[in-house]
Amino acid sequence: MSKASDLRDLLADGDTLTIICHNNPDPDCLASALALGRIAAAVGIDDRRILYSGDVSHQQNRAFVNLLDIDLQPFDPTLVRDREPGSLLAFVDHAVPGANNRVPEGTPVDVVIDHHPADEIEARFVDHRESAGATATILTEYVRELAVETDAALATALLFAIRRETLGFLRGVTRAEYDAAGYLHEHANDDLLARLSTPSVSGATLDAIATAIQNRTVRGAALISHVGRTTDRDSLPQAADYLATLEGVETAVVFGIVEASIHVSARSTDPRVHIGDALAEAFAGVGSAGGHREMAGGEVPLGIFADYTTDDTQLLAIVEQIVTARLVAGLNLTEGEAGDEE
């Protein structure tokens, strides 16, 4: 039997389905959750919900939720903890309880569908494809095989997610993404795709990107920068995307303080660098970090730094020094490279 058939059979035995998005969900996660919900509806599960934690703050993500009318609910631990028989729990675009989600470690999971690197995935149904360019690609395969109705909203969501996750079919793309896009294109709403692609940008995002540009330091082919303290977590990946286009730069890493954590976002086209592994090594033991060869992120609790001082200016200086040193070590930059500043 195929993976799609296995998933259908498992869902057919359920009465309710709770789909957990990872923290601060992006279009790939949201579209995949929407598609899984449609599959569950097709096999007779009427009680379905999509839960998220963190924020939907990126202007593109907010537009995605609003324009596609995705019904999201804030994470409710009771829906995970107090499950009745027949109540199914699913993860999309992430895989492990407690890792980039608020589900307690060790919680039994029924369904995991993901394309990110992960170890020791435990669930009744697992489809983990690191080779896939997007989790939405996998869900598109299921929708097609199971003949789930693909209306304009679902097709637009999945197609936009694949385009966004692969940076317009330029990053981590495989033939499966092209096949999925060819199918979805026939059903998607072109006007809606255009609106999703060009959302308005907030002043906080522009300020953070401007700060990252000003604070950049180039070390060989690597660029490291920070935005200081910001309320806009999603400005970090946008700043990393922009700075990665600087001439001569193959790896860009941007970090900043958001509330009580340090957030890190990185991009790399350097064939010598697996940026996910580099971040994981840089912040091992102090936070969680990792990702793909070309795109990665991480989060470090601020508490380990806040113990040094209560003065915010001093705190920012300490964070900049320590985080930069860890990144230099994680990226294996030489002394000469570390001295080339801009």
TrEMBL record:
Pfam families: DHH, DHHA1. Transmembrane segments: none annotated. Residues 18-162 form the DDH domain. It comes from the Archaea. GO terms for molecular function: nucleic acid binding. InterPro entries: DDH_dom, DHH_sf, DHHA1_dom, Oligoribo/pAp-PDE_c-di-AMP_PDE. Residues 223-302 form the DHHA1 domain. This is Phosphoesterase.
